[in-house]
Write the structure tokens for this entry.
Amino acid sequence: MTTGSRAHSFNAAAAQYDASRPSYPPSIFDFIEDFVSRPLAGIRVADVGAGTGIASALLHRRGADVIAVEPGEAMAAEFRQVRPGIPIVRGDGNALPLADSSHDLITYAQSWQWTDTSRSVPEALRVLRAGGALAIWWNTTAFDVPWIRAQHERIAHHCGVPPRSPVRPDDSEAIRLAGLTGLRVARRHIRWQRTVPLDTHLANISSRSAFLVLDPAANRAFLAEERTRLREAFPEETVEETYVVDLLVAARP
């Protein structure tokens, strides 16, 4: 299964994605403001790979002038339905449909990995104004929480992929992997939690690209087994999820 197939698999579950995916903590945006030495209110932001607009909505609430960029037809349609006050255009990070030097900030929430950094980094620098910044982040696995680590390993086995290493890359390696070598980059890990119904937790798992490209019957069987396990750990069927945001912010030279 190609990376492109996985990237577009979200279109099959756009409403489920919006309803179950975790949001992001306010400290992400506090850190970005500190990095650019100005509040987000009033600045022009392009949120790329916006999906259904989870990050776009948070940026909008901070007062930013946001435009979303999303390649997926169904994801963009869901975005327009649930966030009609925020403009959205079709496109992707490898060829941004935005003018030169037109934005103060470009953000990628959970979406940088779908780009070719040899193209997406120059595109971001083209679109950014002098003094602008590129911010990319992911909600990552809290491996120090035993049940979360065990579940991550089961999911990886089900999806036929190797589990991620619990050891995070150091700053220089993270910057290299993100394609940001040579830029001024700051990195921050932000730990946060949310408490959700068991059904929401399972829907979040099944909205991931590695799941969406698999056989639906096999997925249903896996989720049924997972429900049984989690009911033992969370008898009230309310799950406390822990995430560690990995945030990188790079300055335009």
